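Reviewers of the previous submission asked for a worked example of the structure-prediction workflow described in the proposal, so we include one complete record here. The input consisted solely of the amino acid sequence. No template or homolog information was supplied to the procedure at any stage.
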Amino acid sequence: MVERFYIESEGTETRPQKILEAEDRLEIIKNLRIASGKENDKLFEKHALLYREAHPSSHGVTLGIEIEIPESTILPPDDEWLLMKPKEKKKYLLEKKKEFEEARNAGVPSDEDLFWEFANLPANNPTTLAREVEALIALGLIKKDYAKFPLHVTVGGITFDKEQKEEDNHTHALARILDATAWETSGERLLSPYEGHDTDWTLHGADSGILVRKPEDGVSGEGADTKPAVEFRTSEFRNLSGLDRYLSSIYYLGSALRAYQEGKKDDPVVKQLAKIWRTLSGKCEILFEEMGLESPYHLWTLNAENEREPTAFRGLADILTKAESDENGREAKFVHDIRALIIEARAEIKEIIEADRK
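From that input alone, the workflow returned the following structure tokens.
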């Protein structure tokens, strides 16, 4: 286990070039959130991120993400660390501390114990968040060769209630269906609470992997004082392509779920979106049952005190692990079938959402 050190920086040095580049790049990314200019300007066409952020669909949800950066990705491997002399360790940590401070000056959040958490502001478009993460990787602030960064995604506009009838718990169904894609979830991640990790996804009472976010948290984007939000916590940032697919799926499926929960029968768009969600989730439930899994509509919880307990999470974790190791097995076919259903529904929803944006 790597030791933790708390060291104050000494002196001030010229910023390294990569930090200057980081500051410029992060400033550019931040400006994606600022609307200016005329709508008919080519820079603000409807496909542009800037335009889409400034002109969200009235039927879409908002997304926010948090990517936790374990200290194991920042410090040397344990075998190298143990061989370093105290003065070498101190020098290394001082340099790393300065890098943290420079990153913080460039707008990257961090805390005091050699641990970063990139908490991206809520966006009206999933691609905005994906491009922000891509920028952080290009700047060297997230190591692209490490594929186990805990990822939390907050969806503004949908609700979650543990006390409601299990067969009606569609937010839980969305979370589990997304887990089953393995785009940004793994069997190891689902079972991480058994390892006693500080960053496991059951903290703060989220034993189902879902946390209700209060309006005062300010995580729901525009109208955060009134819009409900929930945080999905079982995912992990594995790669950019997976993140693109995962965020896109959460956004469009979440928008359909929002319509289902609103239930405005007099709104034809809401009615159409709700029907797509109900059809998709019903088909996924059948696939879950065929694999011997508990219905995704039921509330799954994980008892981390008894790792031998055959929970629904363990069942899905085993399927994802086997699917990754054997691409021709029935587990891999299950993951493929879930993905295919989502991709089809996502395309239908996207067409409706984008038409609403015009």
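Residues 330-357 form the longest helix (28 residues). We consider this example representative of the routine output the project will generate in years two and three.
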